[in-house]
Amino acid sequence: MNAARSSGLRRGAALATAFLVAACASTGGLAPRAKPGHAASLQAERSLEGAQLTPAAWPTEDWWKRFGDPQLDALIDEALIQSPAIGIARARLDRAAALAVAAGAPLEAQANAGFDINRQRFSANGIFPPPIAGARFTQSQLAIALSYEIDLWGKNRAAYDAALGQVRAAEVEAYAGKLLLTAAVAHTYVQLGRAFDRLDLAQAELKQRESIYELTRQRLAAGLDTRVELKAAEASIPAARQRLAEIEERIALARSELAALAGKGPDRGLSLERPRLQSKPPRLPSKLPADLLGRRPDVVAQRWRVEAARRDIDAAKAQFYPNVNLAALIGVQSVTYSKLLDPDSGIPSAGAAVQLPLFDGGRLRANLGVKDADYDLAVERYNQTLLDAVREVVSGLKSLRSVGIQNNEAELGLGAAEEAYGIAVARYRAGLGNYLQVLAAETQVLEQRNLRADLRYRELDLSIDLIRALGGGFESPSADGQSS
Asked: What is the pLDDT of residues 413-443, one digit of tens each?
């Protein structure tokens, strides 16, 4: 008989559960549409042909030390400690971690303790007879309330997992912020070095034009030139001085920007000396583009955001099903202090509550639709980040190759221009040439010298960009290979 009754109860519970599930609001027709891309599908083999590929060419975490400049090393060390950008990333991570703790709270039982006291006069014409009717009493209650939500459908677990995904994304984005900061310091440091080189060229240009002006004065005295050539030579000197002032301004601004990036005041920049950077283009790792999935912090962060969005969908779907909550209360209640702790004042209670969404005006479906759209947005951002990652690596490689070719041509051009300038000056001294010929030859030399300097520093800038495109030493725990 007991077995039959137990079997009947189980069948009844199963039928009740089936009815409750069938009565729930429907998720039909709602689903995300975007699909994450795969690095293997991004063909880049032909674009990487001819590159120096090596299994151990991933950047190290302190990649900036490859440029061999202790002053740059010190600036970046300061920036990583004192820059507000690092503090912002740390605060975002702390916020995500706190939200994850809050999201995990519903997975545990909840308990609250309370003490209530209420002074009240009971109506003489109410439901209570004398001596309560018409009298004043102080009602006190001391209780502990317990509650627990049974996570039958995994709603709370999914919400907690989504929050953990956001924490992991914030952790990786903190590294991405660090990489952007170090790259910004390195780029600005390169600009400072370029400005110092331009200063050298501008000083040489001023000295050269003063020499030409003095030679023109001598030719005028000898009757070989007119005042037209003298004034033309004289006019070129203020222009060269203006150029010097412009470059000195760039040096001052670069120093100030470096100080700000390092989290310091402008005076820190005044102590910066001329950069001594060594040009050393990076090599490429052999596993591209597939390994970028675990080497680019922005790609990894977006991947975690996709996973968090997927778990948000699971949590939103679980809201369509019944909620089962257990509750209990242990306490005492009395209208007199003296009897508050009396055993007869106890008010223990226990119960269960089942809540089933039936008609909500489309609120749950709208919420699920939002989560589906959030997932699609996260996936497309991931796909775009992955595309950008591969493009940046290939573009950096192509640009470095082009700069190498341009450097060779610039060296040849500079040699020819300097030779032509020497001939023009010699002819001018001998009275066989004119000032315009010297000026044209000088212009060619200055252009070629500036071009050579520009190419050298562009190579440094491209090297920094390529290192950043390769992840700057970041390695996801799931990444293959080793950094070097």
From this structure: 888 888 888 888 888 788 777 766 777 787 7
Chain center to CA of 211: 53
Q: Report residue 79: phi and psi, to 5°.
A: -60, -40
CA distance 243 to 240: 5
Compute the distance between CA of residue 474 and CA of residue 468 in angstroms, rounded to an integer.
10
Q: Tokens for 81?
A: 């400690």
Binning the chain into helix, strand and coil, the percentages to the nearest 5 are 65, 10, 25
Placement of tokens 């740059």 in the chain: 72
Give the 3-state secondary structure of residue 357.
coil
pLDDT, one tens digit per residue, over 291-301 is: 777 888 999 99
136-150/284-285 β-pairing: unpaired
Can you tell me whether residue 139 is helix, strand or coil?
Answer: strand
Say if strands 323-334 and 349-355 run parallel, antiparallel, or are unpaired: antiparallel
List all residues 6 or more positions away from 56 whose beta carbon is below 8 Å from its beta carbon. Answer: 285, 482, 484
For 186-236, write each residue's pLDDT tens digit: 999 999 999 999 998 888 888 888 887 887 788 788 777 778 878 887 788
For residue 268, give the nearest of 277, 276, 259, 260 by alpha carbon: 259
pLDDT digits (tens, 9 = 90+) for 306-365: 999 999 999 999 888 888 898 998 988 887 777 888 888 888 999 988 888 877 778 888
Tell me how far apart the alpha carbons of residues 89 and 169 are, in angstroms, rounded to a whole number: 11
292, amino acid identity: L
Instruction: Please state, in angstroms and rounded to a whole number, the distance separating the CA atoms of residues 460 and 282.
Output: 10
Helix axes 297-318, 155-221, angle to 10 degrees: 150
| Cβ(434)–Cβ(428) below 8 Å | yes
Helix (H, G, I), strand (E, B) or coil at 470: coil
Asked if 354 and 321 count as a contact pair (C-beta separation under 8 A), the reply is: no
End-to-end Cα separation, the chain, in angstroms = 75
